[in-house]
Amino acid sequence: MALSYKARRRWALVILVVGLPLYIIVASVLATWLNPQNFLVTLALYVGLGIVWIMPFKSVFLGIGQADPDAPPEDDQY
Asked: Which of 13, 25, 71, 72 has its CA 20 to 30 A from that of 43?
């Protein structure tokens, strides 16, 4: 079942406000636990984790910045 535009906007907000900070904490704990000694390995780890978090939510964020397709057209006449 596809989410409506308003539902996708709400879920995107929840993901950004709640989920992203939690993911940042988990990613930093993971990076600390792995303790890479090389700067490039650390950089690659953070870049990889920064890309991986969005993959499951790609469909939620798709088209959020666009106008609501379900909204009635606005008249630009004054």
From this structure: 13
